[in-house]
Specification:
This protein has about 550 residues and is an alpha/beta fold. The protein has a domain of about 60 residues. Helix content is about 30%, strand content about 10%. Strands 1-2-3-4-6-8-10-11-12-13-14-15 form a 12-stranded parallel sheet, with helices on one face. It has a 3-stranded parallel sheet with strand order 5-7-9. Helix 4 runs antiparallel to helix 5, helix 7 packs antiparallel against helix 8 and helix 12 packs parallel to helix 13.
Length: about 550
């Protein structure tokens, strides 16, 4: 009778990979038969099948109690741990999968998962070669008092720090180790993971001073890294992107993402000289760069394929504070395009979306008229995807022949004349590959109107939209207008059971958002911010039970 163990290890490994339903990376090297497309969205940030919680020491059946007692990890990780208990052979097959990806995502900043993972690597150094992805996420709600490292772990990691020959800095490192400093543990993990390909660190909390000795001691450190993400949030913004100088110099680094960081020409690293960076895909989210910095950085990239600069948001919890008046001016659309023009024969995607306060602009046409307009994209030979805010587009934009998808963001006034021009260019053969135009707006009734925000006489909003779609008849273009997903402006939205009676027993406590309070008129929260009414109107238009707008 055939037995499972009659199968070769290669086939058993393939079966084990299918225990995991999703993975964060696809390195396209055949090592992962069940690989999924690479992504940086919510699903990629917390995929199933990565080591979260206590990975244990995974030394085989002798550690059964430690495995079975651990209930912190996802089900797929538990399945892998259980496979390790079956036999030595299944343990040898399952451990590389179990240790391939690690995520530290504790909300309070307690590094208990990281300490446990590091403990396993330092007790079993042979496991380090299997680790290919490490994510150390920014804590959502950092705790004030965190536990110190236990003596046993301190003695385990101490020799690794002593081997760095830090001199006078050694005691400082050991003190930080005892306090479970995030940067120290990131350094400890990197020293034991020679095949690391993807690394995510909290940019606002991470300090490069703990990596500089590592690079000096081992110049080939992280030479296989392909993907680096400096994750951050508004509360830890304004760290210097230049501090990650050594990371961007890595020879195989292709994808770089920065969040809430700054880069100015005055602090631009001299090591990022023209043509020295292997980066092909670079993204900035809620970052701030001046014209000199963006010009130098894109010139330093040898062959750029994707450029993304996204700062616009409707969520006030995501919006970062504007730079100080003393800060250099942010680059504009013309300067960004000129910098990207150095890669006109390699750039495949260009995304630009500047920050603005959506509530403060009452005269949208005047705001659009003040904005610097982007130039021509005609000479870009392989640029397939372009995303730009409506305000930076000229009345008659000129795109490239390779364009497949055009996204126009933050569009809150008539786009009809511009679409007539683009449709004419399509029918003239200028955009043979164009198949999709997507317009994003706060209010779907604004882009469809005539110039000057005049409503076409006798037409419903749907008829106005259909007339815009009709401009592209005879072409392959799918023209659509989408409303933005509205942020949750009511923090008590999930508490539908909260009513006035719930607060009756607490004198002086008003129902949140319902009654008056200090500095607020009785019965409300004060005057509505300009533009907020548009949000509610748009919500109403999406409600099928709401009366039709004419």
């Amino acid at each position: 009778m055939p037995h499972l163990y009659d199968l070769p290890n290669e086939l058993l490994t393939n079966i084990v990979w299918h225990v995991i339903q999703a993975l964060p990376l696809d390195f396209e090297d055949g090592e992962n038969p069940a690989s999924q497309p690479k992504g940086k969205g919510d699903d990629a940030q917390n995929p199933k099948g990565v080591v979260t919680g206590d990975p244990a020491d995974t030394e085989g059946p002798d550690d059964e109690d430690e495995f079975l007692d651990d209930e912190d990890g996802p089900d797929d990780v538990d399945d892998l741990r259980n496979l390790c208990l079956v036999s030595r052979r299944m343990c040898d097959i399952s451990q590389p999968v179990l240790f391939r990806h690690f995520i530290e995502d504790t909300l309070d900043g307690d590094l208990r998962n990281t300490v446990s993972f590091a403990r396993a690597l330092y007790r079993r150094p042979d496991l380090g070669k299997h680790v290919q992805s490490i994510v150390m996420s920014e804590p959502v709600d950092p705790a004030i008092d965190l536990p110190e490292l236990v003596t046993e772990d301190l003695q385990l990691f101490k020799p690794a720090i002593q081997d760095l020959e830090l001199g006078n800095d050694e005691e400082t490192w050991l003190d930080e180790l005892k306090e479970m400093n995030l940067s120290v543990f990131a350094a400890l993990l990197v020293m034991k993971t020679p095949n690391l390909r993807s690394l995510t660190l909290p940019g606002g909390l991470f300090s490069m001073k703990h990596f500089s000795p590592l690079f000096r001691r081992n110049p080939s450190l992280l030479n296989g890294l392909q993907d680096f993400w400096a994750e951050a949030c508004e509360s830890t913004s304004t760290y210097s992107i230049a501090s990650f100088e050594a990371f961007l110099k890595l020879p195989k680094l292709q994808v770089v993402i920065f969040e809430y960081g700054d880069l100015y020409s005055g602090s631009y690293p001299s090591a990022w000289a023209p043509g020295t960076l292997a980066v092909e895909d670079i993204s900035f989210h809620h970052c701030y760069l001046d014209a000199g910095a963006i010009r130098k950085l894109l010139k330093a990239c040898r062959k750029l394929k994707t450029f993304t600069y996204e700062n616009f948001t409707l969520d006030p919890t995501e919006a970062r504070d504007p730079p100080t008046p003393q800060s250099p001016a942010e680059f504009n659309s013309v300067q960004a395009l000129e910098a990207a023009r150095l890669h006109k024969d390699s750039l495949e995607e260009f995304v630009l979306d500047f920050s603005r306060e959506p509530w403060d602009i009452e005269d949208v046409p005047a705001y659009i008229a003040r904005q610097t307009k982007v130039g021509s994209f005609r000479e870009f030979s392989v640029l397939e995807r372009i995303s730009l805010p409506h305000a930076v587009l000229p009345p008659c934009p000129k795109f490239c022949a390779a364009l497949k998808e055009l996204t126009i963001t933050d569009c809150n006034s008539s786009i009809r004349d511009m679409m007539q021009h683009i449709a004419k260019d399509c029918k003239s053969g200028h955009y043979p590959a164009l198949n999709k135009i997507k317009v994003l707006t706060l209010d779907v009734t604004q882009p469809i109107q005539l110039a000057g925000q005049r409503r076409p006489p006798g037409q419903t909003p749907e008829q106005c939209f259909r007339s815009l779609q009709a401009l592209f008849q005879g072409t392959n273009v799918d023209f659509q207008i989408y409303p933005y997903d509205m942020p949750d402006l009511d923090p008590y939205d999930d508490d539908d059971d909260i009513v006035d009676d719930d607060f009756a027993n607490f004198p002086g406590l008003d129902p949140p958002g319902l009654m008056g309070g200090p500095g607020r008129p009785e019965g409300g929260n004060g005057p509505m911010p300009p533009g907020l009414m548009a949000f509610f109107l748009q919500r109403a238009r999406q409600d099928p039970d709401f009366p039709n707008f004419n």
